[in-house]
Amino acid sequence: MARATPTRPPGRPRAGVDAVVFAATLSTVDEVGYAHATVDRIAAAAGIAKTTIYRRWPSKGALIVACLLDAFGPAPLKGADREEVLASAIRWVAAKIGEPGIGAAFAGVFTDAVNDPALRQILSTQLQDPYRLALEEALGEPENRVLFFIDVVVGTLLHRLGMTGEPMVDADVDALVEMVLRVLR
Amino acid sequence: MARATPTRPPGRPRAGVDAVVFAATLSTVDEVGYAHATVDRIAAAAGIAKTTIYRRWPSKGALIVACLLDAFGPAPLKGADREEVLASAIRWVAAKIGEPGIGAAFAGVFTDAVNDPALRQILSTQLQDPYRLALEEALGEPENRVLFFIDVVVGTLLHRLGMTGEPMVDADVDALVEMVLRVLR
DNA sequence: TCGATTTCGCTACTAGAAGTATCGATACCT
DNA sequence: AGGTATCGATACTTCTAGTAGCGAAATCGA
User: Fold this and answer.
1) All residues at 6 or more sequence positions from B115 whose CB lies less than 8 Å from its CB, including other chains
2) CB-closest option in A115, A161, A180 to B114
3) For the purposes of burial, counting CB atoms within 10 Å of the CB of B116, is it exposed (0-12), middle (13-18) or buried (19 or more)?
4) Most buried among A142, B22, B131, B155, by the most CB within 10 A?
5) How far is the alpha carbon of A103 from chain B, nearest alpha carbon, in Å?
6) In chain A, which residues touch B (CB < 8 A)?
7) How far is Cα A75 from Cα B41, in angstroms, rounded to an integer?
């Protein structure tokens, strides 16, 4: 019988600290900002040793991506038609990016990735691709068009956050939804 | 007679190295990436001492912003009507961000600014505001709408650059122009 | 209970980069 | 020539990512 974990390996089992570390990461980023959210500080906030973090995630960037993956979770692609699906997806992303720490962490790792091909690879394949594929399926749109939508929506939201320090207000999110929907029609 | 420089102060005058430093900054960012474009390296590429850079710009972020200000220059807001003005402005920004080093430098300083209020202030007032005001004037649109346009255009272009490592291709820039123009109409 | 195995916490360490301090040398004006 | 301010060079402090090593703790099997 090949179970998910066929036979637990010998030795001390890993402590289930992922959830605690993710929470500590987001709250630390929210409190002191991405630049000052050092791994030392995150470990202290989580109540574990820094070395334990590096045993699980190979770099700070990978930790942030894992944290974002956990925070975003699967995309809720619901709606009666394509327009409703896309509109609800945009509002969902906007709300997530507005949550404490998430937008700042996203912008931070995104910036780190600009000149770090390895991190860019992680970000693209682990974070973006699942949503891209789900959207291609749900909207019946080709890859390049879905990528364009993602660039517009996420880029706009992050630019607003980066320039003002505050998430985009609802009225502007409405305008963003309307603008993208007009392209979809 | 109050001239621009009424009387030159005594002592050794500053060497005119700004242009050399800006060129060295962009080429260094283009060669080794924003993260590895250290002030030491930029100074070496410019053939001057690192201390001289810090005598002129208070921080690396300020240096990058000054470099971008120099690289972008005044916005060429030309066109027979509002649509032509906006379309040409978008294509101009897209071309600039695609130039070697400029996009990467922009993305880098932008990311640094997310959690650095002082740098965000510099970026917002020195780099964004002049273009925003010129666009408000040229398009006859209110501030919040012009800010929305800027978020969409710059955010989209930077997100594409950050995710793929390459500037946006012409076909997608065309789509971006068309999408924004539909909002303007 | 004992041993094997693996993870954990802790301390110390290296490497790299931002930014500062100091000082002799240099360029310009009067 | 003298006064003044900048330049180049070196050294330094501080902070952070990431690594190394070691004793302690947890779990399983015998």
Assistant:
1) A33, A34, A35, A36, A104, A108
2) A161
3) buried
4) B155
5) 10
6) 33-36, 104, 107-108, 110-117, 120, 123-124, 128, 144, 148, 150-152, 154-165, 168, 172, 175-176, 179-180, 182-183
7) 43
Contacts 24+ apart (CB under 8 A), A50-54: A52/A15, A52/A17, A53/A21
Q: Distance (Å, rounded) from C-alpha B135 to C-alpha B154? A: 14
Instruction: Select from B123, B163, B172 the Cβ nearest to the Cβ of A128.
Output: B163
pLDDT in tens, chain A (185 residues): 333 345 667 777 778 789 999 999 999 999 998 889 999 999 999 999 999 999 999 999 999 999 999 999 998 899 999 999 999 999 999 999 999 999 999 988 887 777 777 788 888 888 999 999 999 999 999 999 999 999 999 999 999 998 888 999 999 999 999 999 999 98
pTM of the full structure: 0.90
Q: Determine the Cα–Cα distance for residues B58 and B39; give it in Å rounded to an integer.
A: 12
Show which residues on chain B lie within 8 Å of chain A, measured between beta carbons: 33-36, 104, 107-108, 110-117, 120, 123-124, 128, 144, 148, 150-152, 154-165, 168, 172, 175-176, 179-180, 182-183
Q: Are A63 and A57 in contact (CB under 8 A)?
A: yes
By CB atoms closer than 10 A (0-12, 13-18, 19+), residue A47 is exposed
